[in-house]
Specification:
Length: 495
Amino acid sequence: MPRFQLGNDMKRTTAAALVPLLGSCLLAGGCMTAGPDFTAPPAPSASAGYADDGGSRAVLNEGPEGQWWKVFGSAELDALVDRALVGNHSLAASRATLARARERIAAVAGKRLPQVDAQGRGEYQRVNLAAFGFDGFGGQSISNPEFDLYTVGGGVSYDLDLFGKNRRALEQAAAQAEAQQRATSAAHLVIAGRVVSQVLAIAALNDRIATERKLLSEDERNLSLTQARKNAGAGTLVEVLSAQGQLAGDKASLPALEQQLAEGRAMLAVLLGISPAELGSTDFVLDDFILPASVPVALPSALVHKRPDILESESRLHAAVAGVGVATAELYPDITIGASITQSTSEPGKIANSKFNAFDIFAGITAPIFHGGTIKANKRGAEAEARAAAAEYQQVVTEAFGQVSSLLSALDSDSRELEARHETATIADRSLHLSRRSFQVGNSGILQVLDASRSYQRARLALLETRIRQYQNVARLYVATAGGWDVSEVTEPAS
């Protein structure tokens, strides 16, 4: 930036010219702000909605309240979710990133204020008098003087920001911080949902393992009856082998389920931010949890103002639009005014009383002339980024609507499937009971009992799978409709 030192007359003239210019800019809130102003995307049209209302379980209103996981009625689940929200390492990283984004706002805002600097310098000087035409007096030569010089001083400068570059940069930083806040909210919501789903999955595995062990007991009972019949001469070796095969097959499935349970516990520990050894007991079952009779689902018009990922995308769009303003302002001149004062002496101890001082005010202007098309290319790039952010926002909204619609449909299907599975399991249970009675009185063989046992096993497991899917789809719907978490006041703990 060109800098001009001014004499006293020029100082007064410059000040007289700059004061009205600065005053008019301040009164107007800035001479101008380059680039487009951000406008929030319009709300979904009245025709926008979800493909399915989920039958009687979904209730369209303002959506779920905060801490939605408490609807499952488990204090143990509540404690695990709370523990994850505090201890999860990914959430800690997200909160730290949010703190950094908020500090960047302060850093950018500081550039809009006068910049004050202090300086100190010590130097050794040797003056070449001959260069100034002094070679001596009265025929006597004069040696070039040598001395030490100590200088202290300070200065203040202020960027007028006539075209709003700094204002747009501050707007951009604020929008980026808001986007990170929404991203942190989304991360908390997702982690809570993953903890709930993982706990439900562990509960289902505990139920399934208990069911398998009950079936093993029944298999052992069938084998004993078959061997007794054979020993009495009423049964055959084929029947004994069939009963043994059933027992062996059911035993083979148990280790895999126990491995899945161990993996589920390890995953839950990761979500909590602890080691599996610190997890403690996880012997809960599905019956420990309440399935809510209805799930509040945000209206489409409200969803765009509730889901943190949609709000994050909107904030990133805002930041991109502000970035267009920053790039546009680069096309215009930058004007800076300031003043400085310095005080010098050859003796450091006397610098405070030195009369060797200087004062100047200055004005500087930097105007782009030729940069090989870089500045205009940056502006076009910022405009393209804003268009991309707008398209990404629409994509996030579209995916959110699709996700909610899919889950609503799933809930409806779960309800109908669960009813059918209950009926199938009831019939299979009755069939198994009758087959055993028939076998005991000698009216049928063990193969009929084994077939009925297999049917009952399949019906019980299918019923269990449908129940767990219903529970997890309810949890996913709460997450999809933004069951509240607000990190607007989150700050990174002091170290």
